[in-house]
Amino acid sequence: MLQLNYIRENKDEVLKRLSIKNFKDAESILNAVLEKDTARRNMQKDSDNLKAEANQIAKQVGELMKAGKKEEAEHAKAKTGELKLKEKKFDEQLKNLEDEIHSLLVQVPNAPSLKVPGGKTPEDNEVVFEHGVKPTLYANAKPHWDLTTKYDLIDFELGVKIAGAGFPVYKGKGARLQRALINYFLDKATAQGYLEIQPPIVVNEDSGYGTGQLPDKEGQMYHVGIDNLYLIPTAEVPVTNIYRDVIVKENDLPIKNCAYTPCFRREAGSYGKDVRGLNRLHQFDKVEIVQIAHPEKSYEILEEMREYVAGLLKELELPYRVLKLCGGDMSFASALTYDMEVWSAAQQRWLEVSSVSNFEAFQTNRLKCRFKDANGKSQLAHSLNGSALALPRIVAALLENNQTEIGIKIPAVLVPYTGFDMIV
RNA sequence: GGAGAAAUGGCAGAGUGGUCGAUUGCGGCAGUCUUGAAAACUGUUGAACCGUGAGGUUCCUGGGGUUCGAAUCCCUAUUUCUCCGCCA
Q1: What number of CA atoms fall less than 13 Å from residue A418's CA on the CB side?
Q2: Nucleotide nearest residue A4, measured CA to C1'
Q3: pLDDT tens-digit readout, A364-414
Q4: What domains are defined for chain A?
Q5: DSSP class of residue A254?
Q6: Is the C-beta atom of A86 closer than 7 angstroms to strand B?
Q7: What is the predicted ipTM?
Q8: What is the mean pLDDT of residues A273-279?
């Protein structure tokens, strides 16, 4: 949620930034918000005065009673009846106005950074960096869904039997490769100063609202109805919610957390080649990095996180590219997002493996995650997160790109974790 | 799942109808002392909203109620703890 004060003071800038996201009704919504805000403030002033008066009378009654002036006290009491009625009316109207403002405000996406390119579709994303050489495969090379069968690494059919499509069963070296990647990613993140967190993988409603999955994306999460809990779609949800309703120390910024969790996504509406094999799953593993940052440092930190993720891909010897998402392709909450994609040699396409975003104060406004600045004033911190990394598509690319006639080569950095350097 | 108790500021913990936005301790911050630090001492220290300001309003888990007046009384929801049962 955008900050009301900020909109009030920087309306033109906010409008300009929102136009990058092609958000249509920005002007009319913001005008309505500001109008209602003015009305709300006036009403609060009136209401506060009324309450002050009532408080005065209550105090007087107390004093009169103590002094034994019963009659006068009764007289004063009588006066409050009327005030009370008015008070109730004011409170109701105030609450209505606040609700209206809130429901308008939650419709407004985060205002993109001015660095975000315009555009509407993924084609308009800007390639800012590309690294590595796309491998040329031998004649009989296969896509990963054939390789996983050939080497008995992943059983998709078995997953269907046990749970359903999109819940693969990893076996033998396939399972070991998963564990190796998770450990490798966690070790790297820890070395980079991220504190490892092992959060719950279900969250309550408040947490869902805190990071913005609720109410909009309710249908994308698995819901445990009997206890009203949601399976997390990403570790971002439980980890960021650690800082809900928290005032952190300015000196502690930036706070760096990482977490491995399984992630659960219903992916309603997906179909076709996008869902083949490991391309899109209902359950997958991911190591997430999260930072709570000082507002002045957040963009610097975004670049640092992007570099960090790129470093992982480089070590894994995967050809990758970095996209700066255009306004139309960005998520609702993001102010600037980099997508990292790896080249899948057998599918001949780029696969998104990480998304690194600066949310500025959009999430922290909802979360009420603040810090005290040098003047003792609380202000909202900025939040950022990124995948580092999501496993399935990394596995897909590793298998496809490194296949040879005699087996699949494991990149050197992973060998200490897998215990084997070749899948044969 | 059954029985009981509790929920107060960063933490601990007072407070049972008006003088309570809340005693006190710890922690934090600033200062004195010190070459520096520690200790000691002194001061300061919750949040949100309205207001240029003075100041005002709201908040003692959430919601509702009683009352001129509620942290305090009543109802309700949630959570936590203890005991019992079950159990990785």
Answers
A1: 19
A2: B49
A3: 998 889 888 777 788 899 999 999 999 999 999 999 999 999 999 999 999
A4: 4-105 (1.10.287), 122-423 (3.30.930.10)
A5: S
A6: no
A7: 0.82
A8: 82
